Amino acid sequence: MTKTDAGNQTVRYEQDEIPTFYSNIAQAVTSPYDVILRFGRRKLETERAEGVTISDAIQVYMSPQHARAVMALLERQLADYEERYGPIPGDRDPAPGDSSQ
To answer: Model's pTM, two decimal places?
Structure first.
C-alpha cells in the first residue's frame, strides 16, 4: 500500500509479512514510561462449563504519546464507521477481572 502524507512524502507499507490476529478482548496496562496493549481471544465455547479461557495473541508496547495518537486514530475511524453504518450496537464488555464497572 502506498500513501502520501500531509508533507507530500510517499510512504510505502510492505504488508507481505505482517502477522494478522483476530482479537475479541483487549487489556491495557500503564507505567510512567509505557502503555502495554494486550490483545487476545476469548474462547466462548468453554465459557459455560469451565469458566472463561483467554488465549493471548500479542502484546504491543508503546510510549504514552504514541498511545494517545493511536487513541485519536481509533476515535476518528469509529466516528467514520458510525457515520457510514450507524451506531455500533451493544454495551462494552468489561475485561475479566476489571472492577471499574
So the answer is: 0.64
